[in-house]
Design goal:
Blueprint (H helix, E strand, L loop, with lengths): L10 H23 L6 H14 L3 E10 L2 E3 L15 E10 L2 E10 L4 H17 L6 H14 L3 E2 L5 E5 L2 E8 L15 E4 L2 E3 L6 E11 L9 H14 L4 E2 L8 H10 L3 E8 L6 E3 L2 E5 L4 E3 L3
Antiparallel strand pairs: 1-3, 2-12, 3-4, 5-9, 6-7, 6-8, 8-14, 9-13, 10-11, 10-12, 14-15
Helix pairs in contact: 1-2, 3-4, 5-6
The protein binds cobalt (II) ion (CO).
Length: 299
């Protein structure tokens, strides 16, 4: 149990709940939008616009990861990719005043229902176990054994994570497999649980495409005018949350990105993928750990 009393009626939790509610609605609308022949860019822009229309802010660029890609793909400004008979993971985030919600779902046109079900059922199994005092390793074990039961592998080097104020990826991590050393969850923590299932080996590696970045440090002088303008937008608009190259107002965002990266001001998140020819499914919800269990904010 937690030794300090947590007030779950606190305003910050209401903002987490509001973010979750907006996100759940946008997720459902976005799923309906996805179809064969529709462009990635259209879907990403639709979701990001709907989040704002419903009163939220975009927590991170809409991730659209297809087939062997597990995470971190998002369209660039001139993206012309369209959906085909593929497995599509959509990962979305919303924040209200920096308080976050994070959710993901797989839309499958590839005909692999069981793989989609494996990550969905693993998420259910994980959520059932969440309460103060449960070890993160126990949650990981539930995820692993569920996916194992379908004859697939969990992606072991991707994890769930806590959500803190303006911090989309905080400790503790929630492993997608049994680990010996776990951390005990506490009431009041806000946690994103995200099992990934694959018919591949279960370990993703970095691919050669990076469209998502995050501010690392801003105390470095930048002379280049374009890079300086981009940095200003980043610190004011996105702060410490991930952003997409296509969100930058500057005329040639790739140039500004390159300069800021060279100075160590921003960090990139390359796409993460299984080996070619394999598929990855994903499902994610955000929960608030309560005194007796948890409350799912993104249902
Ligand atoms: Co997440």
């Amino acid at each position: 149990m937690s030794d300090t009393e947590v007030d779950l009626t606190d305003e910050r939790y209401d903002k987490h709940r509001e973010a979750g509610e907006i996100l759940a609605q946008v997720r459902e609308e976005t799923v309906k939008k996805i179809d064969i022949g529709v462009t990635h860019l259209e879907v990403a822009e639709f979701a990001e616009e709907r989040i704002r229309e419903l009163g939220g802010e975009v927590g991170f660029p809409v991730n659209i990861s297809v087939d062997e890609v597990a995470a971190h793909d998002t369209p660039d400004r001139d993206d012309e990719r369209t959906f085909g008979e593929e497995m599509i993971n959509i990962d979305l985030g919303v924040h209200v005043d920096g308080w976050l919600a994070d959710t993901a779902v797989t839309v499958d046109f590839s005909g692999h229902d069981q793989l989609v079900e494996a990550s969905a059922e693993a998420l259910e199994a994980a959520i059932e176990r969440i309460r103060p005092g449960v070890e993160t390793g126990e949650i990981g074990a539930a995820i692993e054994s569920t996916i194992d039961g379908y004859g697939y592998n969990p992606v072991v080097n991707l994890t769930g994570h806590a959500l803190e104020h303006w911090n989309q990826h905080a400790e503790p991590n929630i492993p997608n497999r049994a680990v010996a050393q776990g951390i005990e969850l506490e009431a009041g923590q806000v946690i994103a649980i995200e099992p990934f299932a694959t018919d591949g080996g279960g370990k993703v590696t970095e691919g050669n495409r990076t469209e998502i970045y995050k501010l690392d440090r801003e105390d470095v002088p930048v002379r280049d005018r374009r890079a300086r303008a981009a940095l200003e937008q980043i610190t004011e608009e996105f702060r410490t949350l991930p952003f997409a190259t296509r969100w930058l107002d500057t005329r040639r965002p790739e140039m500004a990105i390159r300069r800021l990266e060279q100075h160590g001001i921003i960090d990139g998140y390359p796409i993460l993928k299984e080996d070619d020819g394999y598929l990855v499914s994903q499902k994610e919800h955000t929960v608030i750990v309560t005194e007796t269990g948890c409350e799912v904010t993104t249902l």
